[in-house]
Amino acid sequence: MQKILSLLRRCVEDYDMIAPGERVAVGVSGGKDSLVLLAALARLAQFYPGGFSVEAFTVDMGTPGMDLSPLADYCRELGVPFHRIPTQMYHVIFETRREKNPCALCAKMRRGSLHTALLEAGIHKVALGHHYDDAVETFFLSLFYESRLSCFHPVTYLDRTDITQIRPLLYVSEAMIREAVPRLQLPVVHNPCPADGHTKRQEVKTLIASLEPQYPKLKESVFAAMQRLPLPHWAPRELRRRPPTE
């Protein structure tokens, strides 16, 4: 956890993500990425200069068989307030509309529900669990399917809602996160989504894995290029671009 915490703190500082005394929401899906983010931010909040507070927000999509109680229990252990946002998204997307490509609509609806809950709670900053590998995969997705050199931003201000999204795990690899889950005994909630594992992102993830034996520094090179170009909003403060270690 110490290595993840170090990388997370450096990312927060490189991109000026958190101000002293700020309330920071964490979007917790129940997956490994958001739980590691929650654990690391809760720990960082204890000693970060100026301090900040952390609160967990989970969008309950109404998915059959999905039990979110372990998330609430874990937040109590951390001393972090837990907010469950009830919705009927699963019913709308998969039963009423029967979407063949549901990911974009699902993401839009979850984002809308989360932002509404944040504003009701008076919170204007939310941390999302996108990590190092997610950034590289998103770059390739934009290149292959949109003909653009693009990626989500480390920090994104949404002027329509006055909410700022931050991604503090950008220096942390998926391998590091996966290894941390059993060590920290995180209560990962299985995602029973019908589209899980059958997406364009999964195709790109598989492609990158197939190329890595021949190009072992592929992800490192792409990530460094995004900062050195830089892509919009990707230049870190003081240009610190050290890649994570697996």
TrEMBL record:
<keyword id="KW-0808">Transferase</keyword>
<feature type="domain" description="tRNA(Ile)-lysidine/2-thiocytidine synthase N-terminal">
    <location>
        <begin position="24"/>
        <end position="198"/>
    </location>
</feature>
<dbReference type="InterPro" id="IPR011063">
    <property type="entry name" value="TilS/TtcA_N"/>
</dbReference>
<dbReference type="Pfam" id="PF01171">
    <property type="entry name" value="ATP_bind_3"/>
</dbReference>
<dbReference type="GO" id="GO:0008033">
    <property type="term" value="P:tRNA processing"/>
</dbReference>
<dbReference type="InterPro" id="IPR014729">
    <property type="entry name" value="Rossmann-like_a/b/a_fold"/>
</dbReference>
<protein>
    <submittedName>
        <fullName>tRNA 2-thiocytidine biosynthesis protein TtcA</fullName>
    </submittedName>
</protein>
<dbReference type="InterPro" id="IPR035107">
    <property type="entry name" value="tRNA_thiolation_TtcA_Ctu1"/>
</dbReference>
<dbReference type="GO" id="GO:0016740">
    <property type="term" value="F:transferase activity"/>
</dbReference>
